[in-house]
């Protein structure tokens, strides 16, 4: 049958993209944001993303209009009470996510499935905040969600086969490719990607090359679509720091220990594209 009504918690970079992808399956989507202004900004960013797809010939104008009509924003968690499926995509902070899962569990119907879009955090810890740990899993979308084909489907040890089958069906309906992964920090992609990004910052700190030079080297030498500093700015430096902190907490490997420059830039509010500046400046 598929999910008829999908809730998304968090209206940041990922929440907005996931809401668009979910609405494209034909489901009604409701996004909970913390303020009306961020909810409206999410709808505007979704409209811009759909316009780009129309311009590139990837979607018809009618299709885009139907998608946006299926999405609404709210500031009230209780408005998600009749959702069949909810995807949490708030800040990468275990304590914040724990609280969100406790609150969600109290308002949504008992048969609803809950997923987290966490990049690194332990899914079982979130599942155990609920009275339905068999109905909780991870769905790790990639940035930007409408464009990236992969979704890591994370199975915590308590999840039922029915839950995993239903969410996998949803991922396929989103037009994405599911890869099953264990509930372990970083799953596959970030466990491999973040030591590379962290080491790029180390090379910059050591003065081996400029950030532009390192980005050019990795694009031209490895065929990557973007260099590490452009990618860090896209992901968000705060999110990147949280991912490295979680990886280091789980494995205590030096490659996961966040470089000092990353922590300093986050302290300075230089978060990448979303704040207007990071390794590069986006204000012009
Ligand atoms: N940025 C990426 O490339 C990327 C990729 C895949 C997964 N993720 C994951 O997606 C999730 C969201 O990341 P994002 O990049 O969209 O971040 P973002 O900074 O763009 O958005 C964060 C959202 O969390 C909300 N938020 C912040 N503090 C909160 C609180 N105390 N209670 C409730 N909501 C709160 C914000 O209002 C915002 O809507 C994180 O778990 C992140 O690890 C990010």
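^ structure tokens above, recovered residues below v
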């Amino acid at each position: 049958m598929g999910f008829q009504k999908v809730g998304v918690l968090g209206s940041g970079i990922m929440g907005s993209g996931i809401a668009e992808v979910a609405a494209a399956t034909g489901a009604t989507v409701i996004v909970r944001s913390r303020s009306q202004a961020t909810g409206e900004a999410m709808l505007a960013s979704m409209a811009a993303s759909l316009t780009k797809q129309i311009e590139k010939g990837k979607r018809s104008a009618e299709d885009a209009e139907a998608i946006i009509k299926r999405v609404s924003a709210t500031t009230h968690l209780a408005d998600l009470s009749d959702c069949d499926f909810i995807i949490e995509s708030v800040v990468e902070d275990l304590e914040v996510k724990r609280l969100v899962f406790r609150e969600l569990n109290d308002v949504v119907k008992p048969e609803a499935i809950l997923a987290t879009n966490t990049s690194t955090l332990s899914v079982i810890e979130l599942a155990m905040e609920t009275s339905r740990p068999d109905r909780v899993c991870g769905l790790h979308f990639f940035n930007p969600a409408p464009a990236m084909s992969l979704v890591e489907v994370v199975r915590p040890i308590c999840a039922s086969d029915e839950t995993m089958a239903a969410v996998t069906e949803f991922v396929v309906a989103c037009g994405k490719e599911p890869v099953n992964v264990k509930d372990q920090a970083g799953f596959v992609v970030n466990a491999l990607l973040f030591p590379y990004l962290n080491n790029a910052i180390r090379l910059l700190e050591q003065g081996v090359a400029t950030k532009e030079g390192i980005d050019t080297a990795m694009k031209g030498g490895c065929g990557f679509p973007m260099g590490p500093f452009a990618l860090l700015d896209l992901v968000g430096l705060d999110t990147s720091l949280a991912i490295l902190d979680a990886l280091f907490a789980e494995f205590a490997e030096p490659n996961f220990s966040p470089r000092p420059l990353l922590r300093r830039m986050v302290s300075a509010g230089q978060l990448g594209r979303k704040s207007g500046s990071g390794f590069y400046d986006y204000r012009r």
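The beta strands are 5-9, 28-32, 71-74, 85-88, 113-116, 136-141, 150-155, 177-182.
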